[in-house]
Amino acid sequence: MCTIAATVAIALGCHSGKVDIRPDASSQKADFGAKESLHPADSVDGGEKSPTARDEGSARPPGRAEMEQVLERPSFGMPLASQMASIKGGTLLVGSSPEDILRVQYAENDLIPVKMADFEIDVLPYPGDPERPFLTGVTRDEAEQACAEIGKRLCTELEWEWACKSVDNRRYPTGNAYEPGAYDEGRIYEPSSPFGVFAMGRILEWTASSWGEEADQVERGVARGFAAGMGVKPEQGRRCAHRWRRMPDGTNASLGFRCCRGEVNKASCFIEPTRPPFSLHRNTKPEQFAAIIGSIPELAAIHDNPHMFSDGDVRAVMARRSSSRDELAEQGIHFVWKPMRWIPRQGMELWVAVGRSNRHSFVVALHELEDNERYSHASSLILWDQPHPLALGYREGHRDELYWAPCWGCRDGGSVSFNDEKNQVEVTHRW
Fold this sequence. Notes:
This protein is α+β, with helices and mostly antiparallel strands. About 15% of the residues lie in helices and about 25% in strands. A hairpin with an 8-residue loop joins β22 and β23 (about 415-420). It starts with 12 loop residues before the first strand and ends with a strand.
């Protein structure tokens, strides 16, 4: 993954015939990233301006106050040798939330619902005996052959994920919070999922699935589970949604398998093809724009009459410093007023927009969970009592950032960027 500069605010400079969109050395970064909130005393819910915002002129809406659901850790007795669990069908939410800071963006689906049919799965990795070590160091073909010899088959990756997540679609087999103690070295068959499937996350496990549907993806297999020494922390790698891309003829001292039985579940993970980082939502209607803003609880302060700017507003933005929109376009710098789809990393889709609600201009970035259908809050910034027009800008060949500005060449404005370290989107304001 690319790494963005430590300072993401931009200097909107256009002087001496040379365009400079590099961060200004005198700029300070204001971090309005998702999942952080203002102090309760500084709440901006309901459109009231916070004490902090009164001084600074802008503020980020507070994050949603709801807590992540606490789920009970399953408890089963010691599994029996060769035991299988009967898994009832249901709705699996494939992958993880785009807001999950441990998510691997390019590899995991956005909690896409799929129907799973009944099947059986070994409660332990092969050979399925709590008194014997798991068999590892095998290729996928060897794993498939071993399952076939006992009248079973290799599990698909979504069967493995469903057996791990269960009906409450939990993050780990033990719940939504990572519990290191669940992997006590003295009890190698622990932990168990709510379906009574054990040792998920103890080793890497082959599945029968391909990495994706493209030619180069079909050639690669998928492993689930976890192994140390792979450059991934346990709290990330032991999530039920984590995927490992493997060559089918490769082996690893920590790579084993478990078997399934029953009709094969055909559902699979979808890896999105590479797409351009910037595209315009040209057909967005005013009522659609207002409905999208109104659907996001974190944006309650701008639910009253949110609307887009216009092309005339973009011309006004350019005119404030006598900038030529056409000349900037020739240099690969474009300014727009309609919402944009931004793909900063493969597997991520963000709906980014500027607009105005009464006397407050705003910049918002939302995760697109379904194309033009469902969204969740990523990051946002409200410019209180500053109704002046804003424009979104982007530069060809620079996928890491979008820019927002009230004028080109002035010292106000900021950026929308993706923070790799925090795995989150940030709207910044250059003060």
